[in-house]
Amino acid sequence: MRKAARPDEESRYAAPALEKGLDILELLVAEQHGLSLQEIARRLGRTANELFRMLDVLVRRGYLARQTDGTYALTLLLFDLAHRHPPVDRLVSAAQPDMQSLARAIGQSTHLCVHHDARLVVLARAESPEPIGYSVRPGAHFPFRDDRVSARVIAAFQPEAKRAPFMAELLTGGKGIRDRRSSLAGRLAAIREHGFDEGPSDTVPGVTDICFPIFDRFGIVAALNVVHVQQRDAKVNVPKARSALRDTAAKISRALGWKQAVSDKTATDPVASTTPKTTVRSRHSP
Question: Average pLDDT for consecutive 10-residue bins of the chain (286 residues)?
């Protein structure tokens, strides 16, 4: 069904055709294999006749592709446009060379995540040079939940005044919200103290998720992750990968304008932590 406009979204100016197009794009974002015209119409609570011309225009402009089975799916045009947006382009341009150097040095893949609209979005990755590895594709997006290492890191380093909405997003869905909220508050405090989050993945056996924040002059802008795959010929162990990731995150942050305090690095440098006093565990990538 169509989403009802929130009160703060209401306007005296209406653009029905634009709204139909945006509804289609927002629906297909969550569909891996595309949808037929009839299914799109059913889900949006509209008729096929209402949407046929809109779909044709979106295909002609390159936002959608009509597949051989007649279904419609998103192309990468939206992703490409997002990367042309100056803040995103600057972040990826600053991070990519150092991510590639890190992946080569430790023999593990790395990826960069940001928060957008209650989702984690992967902006960039650097592949492991090893024959066996695990990586997350750019453009992939995941729920912003408390069982994801990147989400916890991004929430942990928000200014105190902005932290509550992020915690609310982390706790969306699932059961036992009251108990989870108490546990999450302690976990985020530990992440701020140690400067990172780390632990075995529950989704991929033999993988350790390691995540450090990326800052610019205004605060946290992204999370940088290493997905450490335990294998016989691994170049480095987890502590060495963590140390290399910490240095890379700090280097990228400085390139983005983050200023490191000289007097008390341990207290003011969120990426200066080394080995944590207690284990801060993650459950899922990214």
Answer: 48 80 91 90 94 95 93 88 74 94 93 90 88 76 88 93 88 74 89 91 78 92 90 82 96 89 36 39 47
Asked if 11 and 42 count as a contact pair (C-beta separation under 8 A), the reply is: no
Structure tokens at 174: 């699932």
CA dihedral 258, 264, 267, 273 (to 10 degrees): 80
What span, in angstroms and rounded, lies between the C-alpha atoms of 137 and 132? 16
Buried b (16+ CB within 10 A) or exposed e, 99-118: bbebbebbbbbbbbbbbeee
d(CA 218, CA 30): 31
Helix (H) or strand (E) holding 99: helix 86-106
- Give pLDDT, residue 147: 84
Residue showing tokens 């891996």: 32
Q: Specify the pLDDT at position 280.
A: 45
Q: Which residue's structure tokens are 């629906």?
A: 27
Q: Are 115 and 145 in contact (CB under 8 A)?
A: no
What is the phi/psi pair of residue 233, to 5°?
-100, 25
pLDDT at 89 (0 to 100): 83
Name the nearest CA neighbour of 188 among 158, 215, 161: 158
Nearest Cα to 82, choosing from 56, 121, 109, 55? 121
Q: How many CB atoms lie within 10 A of CB 129?
A: 15
Q: Is 240 helix (H, G, I), strand (E, B) or coil?
A: helix
pTM above 0.85, yes or no: no
